[in-house]
């Protein structure tokens, strides 16, 4: 008997047919990868399995028994739990409190010791080692994710759905997560994992379900696939998805020279610790680091959003650290920071694509785009060039899928013809096709001689695309390496603050 069976599920949003007649079987003890382009309907599908959306038609069976979920609680009671991209945890509470949250009604006076034992039993069974007394705000992203998983297991889930769980993990943390997933599988759990990373699909899944434009596009055994065949299945044709570093003439002198850049956070702790690096025109300098290692502060200090006490960043004979954001923009410095919450920065969710494109131009004090016709043309151009899937440019951006929201955000920035471009997490949540579009755009900018600082989270992508890679840990530079000569493992170790053999480092030369 299958752990989960879905028959003919259909869900529409207005005129968008997000899921059209989807059927799927999840076997007991299998890891099923769910793959599909941005906007193909993956989130809509799993949200129905987790009780967040109600299907319009179709049926769901758990262990052969038909179920109807009216809330996530119903799904959990039936054994289905979901780990979202944005954790639903309370920062000021301990791991124990978070895991047992919502249990009050069932037994407010349950002894803490009993809870500890119960949770630690789960930890031992699956190989977790979380200190249950620690507060969430003291934990790394990977530890928080573990708390989420323990919470779901504690609630009795046997079917786990993970939505892009590796997006914010280091290679080592990803391996650890995969080891846990394999252990769950051995213990009879069934898992659906959404990921855009084809190498991960190949590594962790038993089968792959592919969605295309809201429909089933295939269900295949992973052992019979290659990354290429999966990409083809997903995109419905031939596709060259390989990330490539293009050759471009690097400028003779650095375009940006950063010296002794240091900053402190609100509590007086160093958030950037004496950074020294150069950036040349026509090169992509990658920045790799665990989330929260100083990436945000680096972006903000170079764009005038964060005042730092020490150091200098010389660009066109001016110290960027002393200029205002507007003055910096006028010099041709552009930043595109894609935050975890894409709508949190730079886009107005309720406005349509045209209005969002115009809004940026308006804030730049250019009267050119205040002309709505010009705004529509640019919006149409961006939608076409970045293959944004939307019924029209007049749809509120809130209704676009995560990946498509991001394409609007990035497309808008790249239209501003930068000289020095800071791009943070541009591939977050993007499918291979969209990623390829963005890579081509960045390579095009590089060929034009633009200096690009690329802050990323996928080491494979960074290594394949960047000319040099700066690895940071806890606000300081652990090394600037030649990505062609440095192993992924060593980069991962440096991200965790460890030193690696010096001969592999490339320095700034
Ligand atoms: N709440 C909503 N209101 C209106 N339209 C929606 C809503 N949620 C999703 N859609 C639309 O349904 C389609 C499927 O979106 P969904 O988020 O399920 O795709 P996805 O495959 O998860 O994409 P991504 O990989 O970018 O996260 C898209 O066209 C999207 O614009």
UniProtKB/TrEMBL annotation:
Residues 4-238, 256-499 form the ABC transporter domain. It comes from the Bacteria. InterPro entries: AAA+_ATPase (IPR003593), ABC_carbohydrate_import_ATPase (IPR050107), ABC_transporter-like_ATP-bd (IPR003439), ABC_transporter-like_CS (IPR017871), P-loop_NTPase (IPR027417). Pfam families: ABC_tran. GO terms for molecular function: ATP binding; ATP hydrolysis activity. Keywords: ATP-binding, Nucleotide-binding, Sugar transport, Transport. Gene3D superfamilies: P-loop containing nucleotide triphosphate hydrolases. This is Simple sugar transport system ATP-binding protein. It comes from Treponema ruminis.
